[in-house]
Amino acid sequence: MSCISLLGSVVWGGTGSVPEVKEGITEVDEVVLPSWVIPVDTDKVLSDHAVIVDAGRIVDVMPADKVATQYSGRKTTSLPGKALIPGFVNAHTHTPMVLLRGVSDDIRLRQWLETVIWPLEHNFVDEEFVREGAELAILEMILGGVTTFNDMYWFPESLCEAIVKSGIRAAVGIITIDFPFGKYGTGPDDYFSKGKAAREKFLNEPNISWTVSAHAPFTCSDASLEKVRDLSNELNCPVHIHVHETEEERVDSIAGNRSSMSCHQSDEKCSPVANLRRLKLLNERLIAVHMVWLSDEEISWCAEAKASVVHCPTSNLKLASGFCRVSDLMKAGVNVALGTDGASSNNTLDLMAEMKLAAILAKAVGKDAEVVPAITALRMATLNGAKALGISKVTGSITVGKDADMIAIDLSGPSLWPSPTLPNAASPSMSCPIAGFDPVSHIVYAAPGIK
Amino acid sequence: MSCISLLGSVVWGGTGSVPEVKEGITEVDEVVLPSWVIPVDTDKVLSDHAVIVDAGRIVDVMPADKVATQYSGRKTTSLPGKALIPGFVNAHTHTPMVLLRGVSDDIRLRQWLETVIWPLEHNFVDEEFVREGAELAILEMILGGVTTFNDMYWFPESLCEAIVKSGIRAAVGIITIDFPFGKYGTGPDDYFSKGKAAREKFLNEPNISWTVSAHAPFTCSDASLEKVRDLSNELNCPVHIHVHETEEERVDSIAGNRSSMSCHQSDEKCSPVANLRRLKLLNERLIAVHMVWLSDEEISWCAEAKASVVHCPTSNLKLASGFCRVSDLMKAGVNVALGTDGASSNNTLDLMAEMKLAAILAKAVGKDAEVVPAITALRMATLNGAKALGISKVTGSITVGKDADMIAIDLSGPSLWPSPTLPNAASPSMSCPIAGFDPVSHIVYAAPGIK
To answer: Which domain-ending residue is among A367, A388, A409?
Structure first.
């Protein structure tokens, strides 16, 4: 039983062209006819609607019975029993780390990094590792309905080769950290130079966008972070950074405990978020990953600055990092997206699992079963990710004018019965405030993930 | 890609017979040859071992290359790339509630029960609802590798019909609550009478065991709980009850706030756990479900009494009930099993997802990434469930003498690569304390669940 058919950019990539017009009927590449369209740019679920695709773009969303009066599709794709949704956006991962999947579990974050992950990476990571790891990761993500991902890893040029080969959309990082790394380079200046060269080489690839990816406040000095900021300004692209992943990172930075490996590399005795704010990095281009430990004031700064947060619940739980205050961030108006993190701390790239976990975990953390309802979780897994990456004009929702990055989710199968296609089990005669079955609930809470 | 082949009691049910002996070679029904055997009764993973099955029972576990000197299988099942593990035990569910899947999400527990679930149940639940719901739920569980489940629901006779039809193993509840329920009955005496009659009818079914299932302290009076205790003593079967699901249940009971719907139905001003202890229900036959809110003293009482706890992490998060202190319970020596709860608060019956969530959530709650390592989570999902149900002599691990309730998990596929079949990526020359890939990690943290 195959539950996800990928219909996204992989199939429909490409740039636009003007549709032909014949006798009032517009000829288009494809008419897609699912049982439901869930655009996610509103809370609406559209039944019996068609999505009209031409030259890789969504050109119309309309009632299915009106299509013939307006469009003629060179291809018609019927998807009975399936919901058409935007492709998932995995807003934080380290794709080549799939090759380290399961190599080390059930140990503490610093020990995990310092005694296992970093030594392995220093010894093994090269162009081939990155290209082959990224290809495997992209395959896993495509099978799981991901059509866009945001990556932070070494050898971005090799990553780009895998992206172009697959047709998936991705944000690639010009990566930096304040120490030499294995076979890649010697330090920030070398990393910036190599990252910018990779960017130049792939600048014309429509599916690739760029970030400046600084590893973390505890591995990047203020001087490096200022260069990151300047490069982000120069290239007009987001800054992608791990922030406040652990309690120690925040506490030790506020205490100025520079002997701690978790303390930020700044002489300022303040939280890393406060320091990023001081350095003018807390702005609408910031993609702050994890953000597990935050005060009310720090949350309000993020909201004011229009920074995005990427929540990685599986990784935060598995590494015992703690609980992100997702509902408080969202109430404050912060854009919260979702990421799987790397496969060595998850251990999958299954964004559907991340979406369910984000929805249910936020309820327990916020002590309120009403927060992060299903449609909000679905938006976090799609549109909010595109917003964080600064590419919501081209992807993240089923909206006219955007690229056709869409997936179909099969809502049949034993774990999805009763299907939303059935008449409401809760009949209108029932004194029940919420009647009937909801395809959004089935997608978020019941649909299986990666095949 | 089918990732789980069910080999369990469904295929190999039945009672034992004496194997034939021919010239020093014992003829048996089946020789199973997976890449790994993970018995779970120890931490060991056995490579290149065979499991010998005869008349539905495990008669030997031995190195594969020695099988021919001792056994001749009427059937040989080769499972390359697959791990053979005990079937999962879903230690708490309400199977027919799959028919209410997705009917109501993202609302608070009491509102969910009182305005949606209970009214729907009162109006719709009858023999047919239970039989058809149970059949669907059993199909979902079998596809997810569950070979035993523990159920609490109305019309246990109809549930038994579905169990017998499927061949799955289950513990069925003689259910009670202190109010009339829809089409089923009028109150405790009626429920006990009907439950005992169902038990009598199916007493000779080898795959069915029984519990006395009291709904909860807030719906069962002390007098009812005393009858539950006496019936449990008389029938020598476990008591299955929801306890301390919410903070209000514990706090309001201690305060003696009888106007609260969450307060236990006792005049004792103490926690429900303390009251169960007073009523002599806290013992080795108690299956206490949820146990989200517990003091250190209550945990030590559970350990002393050898009571079992069933942890239902998805349900606890989704209903914002809180965080069970799993690692503290286990450190104290309490047997902790896993349950999906009903599909209207989960919304699946996917015990593999529950197992991963239990492992990672315990780390964040316990603030220690080392607690509940993968093998412990796998044991919670199998053997600990069998122990809770009092049937660990017949199921829950791959142990000689037990029934062959086993499943094979495919460890190939993109989300499981690198496979444990590959040579260690972390070569012995690496200064890495944990080298190589572990099939137990892949099963708990990376394998897909229900197909």
So the answer is: A388
Q: Which residue of B has its CA nearest to A450?
A: B448
Q: Of A342, A359, A388, which residue constitutes the final position of a domain?
A: A388
Cβ pair A434:B357 closer than 8 A: no
Average pLDDT in the A268-288 region? 98
Domain that holds residue B328: 88-388
In a domain, A143, yes or no: yes
A82 and A98 assigned to the same domain? no
Interchain CB distance below 8 Å, A369 and B107: yes
* Res B412: pLDDT: 83
Residue type at position A271:
S
Which pTM value belongs to this model? 0.94
B300-325: average pLDDT: 98
Residues A218 and A255 in one domain: yes
Alpha-carbon gap: A257 to the closest alpha carbon of chain B (Å): 21
| For residue A6, pLDDT beyond 90 | no
Write out chain A residues lying below 8 Å of B438, CB-based: 102, 105
Is the separation of the CB atoms in A435 and B105 below 8 Å? no
Does a structural domain hold residue A343? Answer: yes
Chain B contact set for A317 (CB, 8 A): 360-361, 363-364
Tokens encoding A70: 């307006």
In total, how many domains does chain A have? Answer: 2
Q: How confident is the model over B280-290, as a mean pLDDT?
A: 98
Same domain, B288 and B417: no
Q: Is B290 domain-assigned?
A: yes
B451 falls within a domain: no
Separation of alpha carbons A362 and A290, rounded Å: 14
Which pair of structure tokens corresponds to residue A54? 């031409």
Residue B142 sits in the same domain as residue B165: yes
Query: What pLDDT shows up at residue B451?
Result: 53
pLDDT confidence of residue A22: 61
CA separation for the pair B114, B116 (Å, rounded) = 6
CATH for B322? 3.20.20.140
With contacts defined as CB-CB under 8 Å, which chain A residues touch B431? 119
Same domain, B256 and B351: yes
The more confident residue out of A184 and B81 is A184
Q: The complex's ipTM? A: 0.93
Same domain, A66 and A142: no
Residue B37, min C-alpha distance to chain A (Å): 18
Residues A69 and A92 placed together within one structural domain of the fold: no
Report the gap between the CA of B46 and the closest CA in chain A (Å). Answer: 18
The residues, ordered by sequence, that sit 6+ positions from A157 with a Cβ below 8 Å of its Cβ are A127, A194, A197, A198, A201, A202
pLDDT at B422 over 60: no
Mark yes or no for CB contact B441/A105 under 8 Å: yes
Specify whether A54 is located in the same domain as A155. no
Q: Which residues of chain A have a CB within 8 Å of the CB of B316?
A: 364
- Report chain B residues whose CB lies below 8 A from the CB of A124: 425
Interchain CB distance below 8 Å, A347 and B446: yes
Q: What is the mean pLDDT of residues B275-298?
A: 98
Lowest mean pLDDT among A43-57, A416-430, B318-332, B375-389: A416-430
Whole-angstrom Cα Rg for chain B? 22
Are A415 and B317 an interchain contact pair (Cβ–Cβ within 8 Å)?
no
pLDDT confidence of residue B448: 85
- Taking CA–CA distances from A104, the nearest residue in chain B reads B434
Angle at A200 between CA A194 and CA A205, to 5 degrees: 125
CA of A232 vs chain B CAs: smallest distance (Å):
34
Q: Reading across the β-sheet that carries A239-243, which strands appear in turn?
A: A88-93, A146-151, A169-176, A208-214, A239-243, A286-290, A308-311, A335-338
CB contact under 8 A, B318 and A116: no
